[in-house]
Amino acid sequence: MVTIEFAKGKIIVSEEEYLKTSQRVHDNFISKQKGFKSWEILKDNGGLYIDLLHWKTLKDAQKAAKLFMEHPIAEDFMKCFDMESLSMQHFEVIKRY
After folding, report:
1. Helix, strand, or coil here: 64?
2. What is the DSSP string of 4-18?
C-alpha cells in the first residue's frame, strides 16, 4: 500500500522562497530516500500550505521523516513555517478508485 505524508502549515516567507527551498529539499534529500514516489504542494486562499508526499510504505515515510530532522537542510525548510501552525500525519491509502 501507498503511504501519504500530510504536512500543513502557514509559511512565514514569500511563496517564491518557500518553493525554492522545497526544490532544494526535494533535490538534495527527499528524492534520494528509499520509497519516495512524489511530492505535491497545495495551498488554499487563506495562506495554508499542504505538502503531500507519497511513499511506497509507512516504514519508508517514517524513516525519511526521522532522517530529515537530522539533516542540515531541515533547518532551512523549517524556517519557512510558522511552527505553531505546523502539523504532520501519515496515512495509508486503503482504496483508490
Report:
1. helix
2. EEEEEEEBSS-HHHH
